[in-house]
Amino acid sequence: MKRIALLFVAVLFATVTFAQSEEQTKLPIDPKTEQITFRKVIQTVGSQDDVFNRIYSQFMNTYYKSPSTILQQNDGRTLKGKHQFQLDNGDAVKSKWPWVTYYFTIEVREGRVRYTLTDFMQKTQSNHPCEEWLNKEDPLYNPIWGSYLDQIAAFAEDWGQQFEKALVPEKVFEEEEW
Predict the structure, then answer these.
(1) In this predicted model, what pLDDT tens digit does every residue of 69-93 receive, in sequence order?
(2) Pick from 134, 122, 127: which is nearest to 89 by CA?
(3) Any idea which fold 27-167 has?
(4) For 120-145, what is each residue's pLDDT tens digit?
(5) Distance between CA atoms of 148 and 100, rounded to whole angstroms?
(6) Under a CB-based contact definition with an 8 Å cutoff, are residues 83 and 94 in contact?
(7) What is the pTM of this model?
(8) How far is 103 from 119, CA to CA, in rounded Å?
(9) Distance spanning both ends of the chain, measured CA to CA
(10) N or C: which end of the chain has fewer CB within 10 A?
(11) What are the extents of the domains in the chain?
C-alpha cells in the first residue's frame, strides 16, 4: 500500500513539474513575424524631449557599457540597437556558453514610451533564430533549449524592469536660500 501511495505521489509530482516546465517556455510570439517579441507600452510624464533624454542618460548610459557602439538609429524620438548576452548551459567553462543577439527599439511619444525586443538569434558561424528552440519535434531537439528559452524570458523581464525604473523622473532638490 505504501508503494502505491509513493508511486502516486511520484507521478503527481512529475506531472506538476512537467506542466510547470511547459508553462515556463511560453514566450510572446508576434503573429505577423512569428518571432519571439517582447513589447510593452508604458505611460510616462514629461515632455517628449525630457523623456527621451531621461531614457538615454538614465537607461542607455547605465545598462550598456558603450551605448553609442550598439545604437543603429538615434533620431531624438526612436532608439534602435543591437546587443548580445550570454546564456548559461551549466558547463563550468563559460566560453562554451552560447551567445544570443537581439534587437531593441525604444519609441517615445507624448505621454508614453514603447519598447520592443525582438530578433533573438543564437550567435554561431551561421546565426540561428532562437524560435528553433521552440520545436520539440525537431530531431536535433536538445532539452537544454527549454532552459535557454527561460533565460531569454528572464533577460527580457529584467531588461524591461530596468527600463521602467529609468523612466521615473529624478527628484529635483531645490537649495534653500539663506
Answers:
(1) 999 988 888 999 999 999 988 887 7
(2) 122
(3) Alpha-D-Glucose-1,6-Bisphosphate; Chain A, domain 4 (3.30.530)
(4) 999 888 888 989 999 999 888 989 99
(5) 10
(6) no
(7) 0.77
(8) 6
(9) 84
(10) C
(11) 27-167
